C-alpha cells in the first residue's frame, strides 16, 4: 500500500484542522480555569499538552471517511464533523487518564503522563506519601472534565436534532462498551474473571475497537448521510481491524524489538497481563514451565527471554498470528461493493499500517 | 417554620415522580447492561439501589422551585423539569462515587457504598490484595457512566435548542466548580495547598453549594422562564445557604451527638480534615495543644475529647457558628421582592431544615 502525495497533503491539512479545533476546545477551558487557581489551571495545561501531542488516529479516520463518503447532494457538515472528530479525541484521552489511574501508570510512550507530571511537581510540598494520591486525584478529575467536554461537543453539534440524537446514541453505546471492556480487563488482571480466550477477545473488542474504529466510522457515516447498510459494513470492518491491531500490539509487546516500540519488553509478563498469547499457552504442555514466571514483578531479563522462547515454541505466537489473519480476512470480506470505492481506500490505507508495524 | 400538610402531600407526589424518572433512567441501562455479563450488570444494579435509596434533596429543590416560579403564560415543561431533576441526582451520585474512590471510603451512612459492596462480593475470588483495586475500579467506571447519563439527559431535554444550550452551560459550569472544589479539598488534605480560612470557605462553596443549591435553582428558573434577576438572586441565596449547611456539617461532625448523626465522632480529626474550625484554631494559642493530635488515625476517644474541648475553649466552635449566622444573614438579604413570595417560602422551608438539625 503506497500513500500518494495528495493523501499526505490531505492528511496534513486535516491534522491542522483537528489541531485547531482541539486547541479551541481546550484553550477556552484552560483560560476559564485560571479563575479557579493555579492547581486547577495546571490540570488543563497538562491535558492540553498531552492531547495536542497525540497522533489523532481517531479524528483522522472520522474525517477521511467523512470526506470519502460525502455526496454532493447531502448538506455539507464538514465543520460539524471536525468538532465531533475532536470530541472523540477528548474521549480517547479521558479513557487513557482513567485507565492510567486504574493501572497505576505514570508514564506513556516514555514520557510522564498527566499523573506522572503532577507527582513530580508535587515534590516536597506533599505530606509524606500523599503525592501519588494528589496526582491520581488529578487524573480522575481531569478525566471527568474531558468526558464532560466530549458530551458538550456532541450535545451542541450543529445538526438537526434527530441526527444529534443519533450521535448521542452512538456516544452512549461506545462509552458502555468501553467501560465494559475496561472492567473485563481489570477483572482478568485481578483474578476475578476467568482468563479464557473468548473473554479476552471480547474484552479487546470492547475496550479499544469500539471507540477507536467503530465510533469514528459510524459517526462519519451518520454525518455524511450514508445508508445504514454502508455504516454497518464499515463498523463491522472496523471492529475486525481493531481486534487485529490489538492482537498485534500484544505480539509486539512480547516478541517485538524494544528498540522500535520503546517499551519494557517484559512488562506484559511482569504485570501478568491476560492476553490471547497467554490464553493459548495455558492450553499447552508448556504452561507449567511458564506459569511460575507469569505475573512476577521482579522477572529478570534471563527469565523473560526463557518465557518468550517457551511462548514461541508452544505455538502461542503462531496461534495469535493466525487470529490476526482471521480478523484481516473478515475485514477484507466486508470491503464489498456495499462500501464505496473511495472509502475502501481509506480502510485499506489504515489496514496497510498493520503490515510491517514495529511499534 | 412549620410544614403544612399540603406541602407534605406535594412532596410525596414529587418524590414518587422523581423516583419513577430515576427508575426509568437506570432501569433501561440496567437491562441493556446484562448483555455485557454479570459483573457489568452488577454495577448498574448496585447504582440503582443506592440512587433510589437517596433523599432526593436536589431534585426536590429543583421541582419545588420550578412549581413555585412557573407562570401560567409560560409553556409547561414539568416533564422536562422532572428529567433534569433526576439527571442532577445522577450527577450527585457520580460525584459521590468518585469522591469515595479518592477518599478510600467503603461506607456511607452506615452501609457499604458501591465500592464496599463490590469488595465484599469479590471475596475470595480476587487475587491476593486485588479486591480493593477491583472494587475501586468499579467506582471509577460507574461514576463515568453516571456522568455520561447526566449529560445524555441534558442533551436530550425536550426544549428549544437555545434553552437546552443554557442548561448545558449550567452543567458545564457546575462540573468545573465541583471539580475545582474537590481538587482544593484533596490538596488541603494532602498538604499541597495551605489551609487558610479563605481557601477552606471557597472550597466548601465550590465542592457542594454549586451543585447542591445553585444548579437546581438556576435550572428551575431557566425551565420556568424566570427573569435572569430572579435566577441570580436565587443562586446567590442558594450559595449562602449551601455554605451554611456545609459549615454546620463540620460543627455536627466534631461537636454533635454521634447517636444522632451516626458517624465516628472523631473521624474528621483522625483524617486531619481541614475545616473552618481547624483553620480558626490554628490562629489561636490553643493550636500547639491540638496539633499533635490532628490527623492521627489512631486517636483515642480520650484524646478526641481533649481536642474537642480545646476547639470549643479556644473559640473555634463559636467562630464557625458566627460564620453560619453571617451566611444566613446574607441568605435572608437575598430574599427581597425580586424573588416571588411562593419561591421565598421554598427557600425558607429549606433554611428551616438547618435549625435544630442533628445529623
Briefly summarize what is shown.
The structure is a homodimer of 359-residue chains. By secondary structure, the first copy, chain A, is an all-alpha fold. The first copy, chain A, contains 16 helices and two strands.
Features:
metal-binding (chains A, B), 16 helices, 2 domains, Farnesyl Diphosphate Synthase, homodimer, 1% strand, two-stranded antiparallel ribbon, 2 strands, 359 residues, globular, magnesium (chains A, B), mainly alpha
What does this structure look like?
The structure is a homodimer of 359-residue chains. With 359 residues, chain A is mainly α. The first copy, chain A, has two domains: 1-54 and 78-158, no CATH class; 191-359, Farnesyl Diphosphate Synthase (Orthogonal Bundle). Chain A has helices spanning 5-33, 38-52, 57-69, 78-103, 114-122, 131-155, 161-189, 197-224, 228-255, 258-261, 267-271, 276-282, 287-290, 301-313, 316-334, 341-352, and strands at 107-108, 111-112. Chain A has a two-stranded antiparallel ribbon with strand order 1-2. Chain A is globular, with a radius of gyration of 21 Å. The two termini of chain A are 18 Å apart. Chains A and B meet through helix 1, helix 2, helix 4, helix 6 and helix 7 of A and helix 1, helix 2, helix 4, helix 6 and helix 7 of B.
Amino acid at each position: 500500500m503506497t500513500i500518494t502525495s495528495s493523501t499526505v497533503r490531505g492528511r496534513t491539512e486535516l491534522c491542522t484542522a483537528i489541531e485547531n479545533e482541539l486547541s479551541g476546545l481546550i484553550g477556552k477551558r484552560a483560560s476559564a480555569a485560571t479563575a479557579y487557581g493555579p492547581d486547577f489551571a495546571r490540570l488543563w495545561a497538562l491535558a492540553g499538552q498531552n492531547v495536542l501531542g497525540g497522533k489523532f488516529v481517531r479524528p483522522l479516520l472520522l474525517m477521511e471517511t467523512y470526506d470519502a463518503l460525502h455526496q454532493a447532494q447531502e448538506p455539507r457538515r464538514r465543520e460539524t464533523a471536525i468538532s465531533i472528530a475532536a470530541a472523540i479525541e477528548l474521549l480517547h484521552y479521558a479513557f487513557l487518564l482513567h485507565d492510567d489511574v486504574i493501572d497505576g501508570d505514570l508514564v506513556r510512550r516514555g514520557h510522564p503522563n498527566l499523573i506522572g507530571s503532577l507527582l513530580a511537581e508535587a515534590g516536597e510540598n506533599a505530606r509524606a506519601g500523599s503525592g501519588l494520591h494528589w496526582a491520581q486525584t488529578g487524573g480522575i478529575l481531569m478525566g471527568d472534565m474531558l468526558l464532560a467536554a466530549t458530551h458538550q461537543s456532541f450535545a451542541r453539534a450543529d445538526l438537526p436534532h434527530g441526527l444529534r440524537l443519533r450521535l448521542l446514541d452512538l456516544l452512549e453505546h461506545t462509552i458502555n462498551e468501553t467501560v465494559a471492556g475496561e472492567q473485563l480487563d481489570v477483572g482478568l488482571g485481578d483474578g476475578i474473571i476467568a482468563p479464557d480466550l473468548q473473554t479476552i477477545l471480547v474484552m479487546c473488542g470492547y475496550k479499544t475497537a469500539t471507540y477507536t474504529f467503530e465510533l469514528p466510522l459510524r459517526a462519519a457515516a451518520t454525518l455524511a448521510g450514508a445508508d445504514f447498510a454502508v455504516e454497518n459494513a464499515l463498523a463491522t470492518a472496523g471492529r475486525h481491524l481493531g481486534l487485529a491491531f490489538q492482537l498485534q500490539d500484544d505480539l509486539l509487546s512480547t516478541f517485538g524489538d524494544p528498540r522500535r516500540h520503546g517499551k519494557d519488553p517484559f512488562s506484559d509478563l511482569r504485570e501478568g497481563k491476560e492476553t490471547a498469547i497467554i490464553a493459548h499457552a495455558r492450553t499447552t504442555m508448556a504452561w507449567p514451565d511458564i506459569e511460575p514466571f507469569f505475573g512476577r514483578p521482579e522477572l529478570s531479563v534471563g527469565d523473560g527471554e526463557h518465557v518468550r522462547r517457551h511462548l514461541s515454541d508452544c505455538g502461542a505466537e503462531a496461534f495469535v498470528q493466525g487470529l490476526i489473519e482471521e480478523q484481516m480476512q473478515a475485514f477484507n470480506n466486508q470491503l464489498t461493493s456495499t462500501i464505496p470505492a473511495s472509502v475502501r481506500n481509506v480502510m485499506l490505507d489504515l489496514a496497510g499500517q498493520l503490515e510491517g508495524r514495529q511499534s
